[in-house]
TrEMBL record:
It comes from Ktedonobacter racemifer DSM 44963. Residues 358-592 form the ABC transporter domain. It is a multi-pass membrane protein. One of its GO terms (cellular component) is plasma membrane. This is ABC transporter related protein. InterPro entries: AAA+_ATPase, ABC1_TM_dom, ABC1_TM_sf, ABC_transporter-like_ATP-bd, ABC_transporter-like_CS, P-loop_NTPase, Type_1_exporter. PANTHER family: ATP-BINDING CASSETTE SUB-FAMILY B MEMBER 10, MITOCHONDRIAL, ATP-DEPENDENT PERMEASE MDL1, MITOCHONDRIAL. SMART domains: AAA.
Length: 603
């Protein structure tokens, strides 16, 4: 796989400058903005009208004052007042539509990004999910995508475009009214820019640190709540509280620094520049007023323009921090989007003709450097039941996962009806292989929905009940208050391990796959229920190819063949009876288990 930066965190982007942040934002955002170009133009044109109203207001005040002080023309004063009143009403209505249009664009872009990212993530290869924390992915989709659209587009970027135009217009008006005072009032701007640049520069690291911290906080909470039973069982509530307090302390420190800097630029700094600017206008303007080179109206209009100019400028400057933040968010999202999907659309879209003959040809595989599966070869035919036994960690589950192309094999081939599964599109392959995995995941919904999860075709309810009766699901579901409509809780927390296993088994059988992979699928069942289910698995034997990983040898007693795996290698293979006679590992396991069963109860 290509080397792509790590998905979580963002420390590597510490030294970014505002300029490069803008470039990143525009590079990544322009394609996202394209579909909304009309909505953006609509929003910007309303903003244009709002700005025009703001620009007109000081001119009306000027006219009003000049009419009152110079010519004492009261009808003009009344006209100006009425016009100002009308203007403020129109501006309020326009302003509502302006905010509405901007929010609409922002939310739409967030939704578009969230959709695109989720759609990509759900198709990423499994090893990527092992490599990164779930919370980092959740953070990307929920926080980062939201930040880009809602926070940035609607409250920063679109206003910024309008603000630049407004600033240029304001400068124009100031110079037009009195070029000397106008230019003098602009001299304050470089000072404000320099100060804000310094503050923003210092804030880079804070912004990145805050981002990493928030992500860590999410991850920690998610982990604690999902492991709440373990926390309770060992009584480590205080330990978790300490961990959380440490996080709160770190967060508090960073957030207070970042917020202070933020508000400093927004509030104190802009007020300072505002005041200096007003002093310049009133100082020099007052001087010109005394010399009759300026009217009272012009002085008032200029002071109003200067205030508008500095408010707009400080809003523009404060957008720098958000730009850095959004550039980081966009890069993190891009990091995910760059990752190649799971063998995208690669491979045949139909299974080869056959009943599900599976052949492992000298396959090897490793998760990291140490080999997990070493030159494993065996085959299992339709109608056969293959038992797979061996110590924990020997690679049994991995073998099951390789059949589903969760990971690509490093060497060798797995053939399905003579066709290398690496040449079959994964989603096609998986439709025909049913897996009941060791750690069963149920959705927090009803038993009925859990049973029907992912089914591509309609299954009549009678068929569902029939399968549930065979897999002993019906027996316990009938005792639940809402039967099949009972909600099972997060990850099936309201059910016992054995009940979950039975639902998972029924779910797999309902898919009617050619090949059934059962990874310790009956380990949590009592002996009687297990026997009943094993009988069902045996009965459906004429056509299906079944691979059964089991700890208890009794489970594989009736298998057609048993593969014994140790340390990723096949050490024995054959039918259970001949294996027993070989006096090897199978026989040893058999004796140990027999001995366990034979231990007399203590008196
Ligand atoms: N996602 C993974 N990343 C790295 N190593 C793994 C991963 N899953 C399993 N392993 C390792 O591979 C080996 C085989 O695991 P597994 O197939 O689950 O064994 P079994 O099912 O026989 O108990 C173990 O040593 C385990 O630690
Ligand atoms: Mg396992």
């Amino acid at each position: 796989m290509r080397s792509i930066p790590r998905l979580s965190g963002g420390e590597e982007r510490m030294d970014r400058k505002t300029g490069s942040s803008f470039r990143i934002v525009f590079r990544h955002l322009l394609p996202e903005l394209r579909p909304y170009i009309w909505a953006i133009l609509f929003s910007l044109s309303i903003t244009g009208l709002v700005i025009s109203a703001d620009l007109l207001q000081p001119l009306l005040f000027k006219q009003l004052l000049d009419a009152a002080t110079l010519s004492m023309n009261y009808p003009v004063v009344i006209q100006c007042l009425l016009f100002l009143l009308g203007l403020v009403c129109v501006r309020s209505v326009l302003s509502y539509w302006e905010i509405f249009a901007r929010s609409k664009v922002g939310e739409s872009i967030s939704a578009q990004l969230r959709r695109k990212t989720f759609e990509h993530v759900i198709h990423l290869p499994l090893p990527i999910f092992h490599e990164m924390e779930d919370s980092a992915l959740v953070h990307r989709i929920m926080h980062d995508c939201g930040e880009v659209g809602r926070v940035y587009i609607s409250s920063k970027l679109l206003p910024m475009i309008a603000q630049v135009i407004q600033v240029l217009a304001l400068i124009g008006f100031l110079i037009a009214l009195n070029w000397q005072v106008g230019l003098a009032s602009l001299l304050v701007f470089p000072l404000g820019w320099l100060i804000s640049r310094g503050v923003t520069h210092r804030s880079h690291a804070q912004v990145i640190r805050l981002r990493t911290l928030v992500e860590r906080g999410h991850g920690m909470l998610q982990e604690i709540f999902s492991c709440i039973r373990e926390v309770r069982a060992v009584g480590n509530e205080a330990g978790e509280m300490r961990r959380w307090d440490n996080w709160l302390q770190d967060y508090g420190r960073v957030i207070s620094r970042t917020t202070t800097q933020h508000h400093f630029i927004r509030g104190t700094l802009s007020r300072l520049i505002d005041w200096i600017g007003l002093c310049v206008v009133f100082g020099w303007g007052g001087w010109q007023l005394l010399g009759h080179h300026m009217t009272v109206g012009t002085l008032l209009a200029m002071s109003l323009y200067v205030q508008q100019l500095y408010t707009t400028l400080s809003a523009l400057l404060s957008g720098r921090l958000e730009t850095i933040e959004v550039a980081n968010a966009l890069e993190a999202i891009q990091n995910i989007l760059q990752r190649p999907r799971e063998w995208p659309d690669q491979g045949q879209q139909a299974l080869p003709a056959g009943d599900g003959h599976l052949e492992f040809e000298d396959i090897s595989f490793s998760y990291q450097d140490t080999p997990t599966i070493k030159q494993v070869s065996f085959h299992s035919a339709p109608g056969q039941m293959t038992g797979i036994v061996g110590p924990t960690g020997s690679g049994k589950s991995t073998l099951m996962h390789l059949c589903l192309r969760f990971y690509p094999v490093a060497a060798g081939k797995i053939l399905l009806d003579g066709q290398d599964i690496a040449e079959i599109a994964p989603h096609v392959l998986r439709q025909h292989i049913g897996l009941v995995s060791q750690d069963i995941q149920l959705w927090n919904t009803t038993i009925r929905e859990n049973l029907l999860y992912g089914l591509q075709t309609e299954v009549p309810w009678e068929r569902v009940i029939e399968v549930c009766q065979k897999t002993c699901v019906d027996a316990f579901v009938r005792h639940l208050p809402q039967e099949y409509e009972t909600v099972v809780g997060s990850r099936g927390v309201k059910l016992s391990g054995g009940e979950k296993q039975r639902i998972a088994l029924a779910r797999a059988l309902l898919r009617d796959p050619k090949i059934l992979l059962l990874d310790e699928a009956t380990s949590a069942l009592d002996a009687l229920t297990e026997r009943a289910i094993t009988n069902v698995l045996l009965q459906m034997g004429e056509k299906k190819n079944r691979l059964l990983v089991a700890h208890r040898l009794a489970t594989v007693q009736s298998a057609d063949q048993v593969i014994v795996i140790a340390n990723g290698k096949i050490v024995e293979a054959g039918d259970p009876h001949s294996l027993y006679k070989q006096n090897g590992m199978y026989a040893t396991l058999y004796h140990i288990q027999k001995l366990g069963e034979g231990v007399p109860p203590r008196s």
